[in-house]
Design brief:
Length: 199
């Protein structure tokens, strides 16, 4: 896969449909950084990193089809699947769509038709990548880019995500803690988030 061409294609779709581009670009940066920090746990490669970055950039385009926000995660997945892609294969598009779909609300479930249609390996990829996207999206809950940097400390039975940025980051930490649900399941570890104490 040509990373530059693929990203240009993703950015074009994001720019056409996304009203809060700063938010999704920030979420994508946080997600990719978390992906790198958690590499020893997930064991995924560069192709998966591109899928995560792409899904993060497109996770909210469903708002263009669902202005009230209800079901926008499912609309994002639909728009990704229905787009005429040139730089992604059909299986990769399906994984990307499902990662975007599970950035909020319910977790991946075999009762969900599109998730069940994936191969077992693709379902695993979706769970791993969506778990990271959920956390990254929570870390920009206020859409103000308060969390500027993340690092992860992998401990036995636990992952501590250290945050830096503009305090107090209370809303972002609370949202990200709620959205660690999938990560705790797929990585079989407790997740905690910390930020430096106010001076």
């Amino acid at each position: 896969m040509n990373y530059t061409a693929a990203l240009e294609e993703v950015m074009a779709l994001m720019q056409a449909l996304e009203k809060e581009q700063h938010h999704v670009q920030h979420v994508a940066r946080l997600a990719v950084h978390l992906f790198d920090e958690l590499e020893d746990l997930h064991g995924l490669g560069d192709a998966d990193r591109i899928v995560l970055e792409s899904a993060a950039l497109l996770h909210d385009i469903g708002w263009s089809a669902a202005p009230d926000g209800r079901g926008h995660h499912r609309e994002s997945a639909r728009l990704i699947r229905e787009h005429s892609w040139e730089n992604f294969t059909a299986p990769t598009i399906n994984v990307m769509a499902q990662v975007a779909r599970y950035h909020r609300k319910s977790l991946p479930d075999l009762e969900h038709e599109d998730f069940a249609a994936l191969s077992p390996r693709e379902r695993e990829r979706v769970q791993l990548l969506a778990s990271i996207l959920r956390i990254a999206d929570g870390l920009d809950r206020g859409h103000v880019q308060a969390v500027e940097y993340v690092s992860a400390e992998i401990l036995p039975g636990k992952v501590v995500i250290h945050l830096s940025g503009r305090p107090p980051m209370t809303k972002e930490i609370a949202a990200a803690r709620r959205k660690c649900d999938l990560a705790a399941t797929v990585f079989r570890r407790e997740f905690d988030l910390t930020s430096p104490a106010p001076r």
